[in-house]
Every structure is written in C-alpha cells, then in structure tokens.
Design brief:
- This protein has about 160 residues and is mainly alpha-helical.
- Helices cover about 60% and strands about 0% of the residues.
- Helix 1 runs parallel beside helix 3 and helix 1 runs antiparallel to helix 4.
- The N and C termini lie far apart (about 95 Å).
Length: about 160
Amino acid sequence: MVAVITALVRAWTWCYTLGLSSDLRDARRGEIESDLWESRADFDSDGQLALQMVFRLLSGLLSDVLWRCDQHSSRSVKTVVVAIAIVGCCLAGLWLMATPQLPEMPAPSRVRSMEPAWPVPRPLPAPPPPPGTRPGDASLSTQRARRAQGAPSATPREH
C-alpha cells in the first residue's frame, strides 16, 4: 500500500510541476522525494505511514496548486493548474473509494477473573456502645426517639 501511495504522490508532483523550468521543477520534485524518504524513516508500521501519506497528499493539494500559481502569473498557467488540481482530487477520491477497507480491530480479550489487583481492606468493626448502656440494650437515643413517637421501648422499664 505504501508503494501505491508513494507512486500517487510522485505522479501528483509530476503533474503540478509540469511546464516549469527544469531547475524549479527538479528542485520541487527533489523536496518531495526527500519528504517521502524522511516519512519512511519516521514510522515503524506501514499502516501508519500509509495513512499519514494519504492525509498529507490530500491536505497538501491546495497548497501545491497555490505554490504552482505563484511560480507564474499567466492566466493560462493558472487554468491548467486548476484543471490539474481538480483531476488530482478526483483521482485521489476514486482511489480512496477503490481501496479495501482497513481491517477491523480485534475484539478485546475477555476478563478472566474479577479478583481485584490489590488487597481489599476488611470492613471496620462496629463502634462500642455508648457509656452507661449494657450490651444488647437499645441506646438511650433510640429509646428516647421511640418514646417521643409513642412506640413501646425495646427494653422493659424498671419501677
């Protein structure tokens, strides 16, 4: 895929530099070749490189056309350059539609265990009863709340 995209970049460069003086044309083509070489050195995977090259090709079409227009001010040259740009955009769009879809990402692996990765702390023990109460007796505040509501208390009253 990288070889196809590289060929497209070179073909586009050849199109928009067509008709320039040999010095200017060769200098621009040399810049593009240098950029292609540096891009290959920057990426480890062909997939990432291919995506980056396609993005740069498509996003740079207008800049290339404007650069070409700056080289000559003649209206006929501008017309030819605009025509080349339109054809280049159409060809790039057709190429993108014709390429197979990128492979789907693999499904994430299933979680094998729901065990936590760190120890879970034990729950804290219940607080001790308030002073002045016996174990098993309802607290004084609970007894008062029940009396205020008119409910019988949980412990028998002493007379």
